[in-house]
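All the exercises in this workshop are built on plain-text protein records. A record pairs a protein's sequence with a compact description of its fold. The structure tokens are whole numbers drawn from a learned vocabulary of backbone shapes. Once this layout is familiar, the rest of the handout is easier to follow. An example says more than a description, so a record of this kind follows.
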Amino acid sequence: MRQIILLTCVAVAALASTAAEAAITVYTTEAGFLAAISAPGTDDFEDANGFFTSPLTRSAGVYSYATNATGGLYFGNVGGGQVLSTNNSVTLSFNTFTGGVSALGGFFFNTDSSFNVVSGPVTVSAADADGTNTQIITGATTASFLGFVSNGALLSAAVTPAGGGNKYATVNNLTLGEYQGVAGVPEPASWAMLIAGFGLTGAAMRRRRVAATIA
């Protein structure tokens, strides 16, 4: 009987371990991202214009965060709305989140020094306690959306213009939120392990019953 219990416990423990692992899910549409989170708050940057030193603390709904770029930050107008960018061609970063932030999304692209949109790749990453997920948007435009959702707390995010030169990392409508998913859904391999564990348990029980009947 102890062997039967052990087999079952191993199968369940393996499943629980997989479900507990933190992970970042990436969304390429704003609708999909918003459907995966709760209590979203958006910073549309409409209250800021011109140069600001960094780090700069801002809010998005009930959340607050810090944004930073070497040489400072620059807010300007693109397509009739304010956006956040940098004063140099460097990485734009976000961190020091408050309010339980586990999701971050926005429209990421490049602009030049006059806030004209420059088509080209942009590297966007987000990090939680288990690592960093990095994505590259090729040919990024003002319609290029990326969202990151972790089942743990987000620690930071960063946007880097590829190629340098007269390209500045730019973000519009930065949205923060909280993970609203259920506990991790097991991978197919984990289900197979669980089923195999129960199968072995059943086989052991059948052998025990047969042995007992013969005796």
The chain has three helices and 15 strands. Residues 46 and 181 are 31 Å apart (CA to CA).
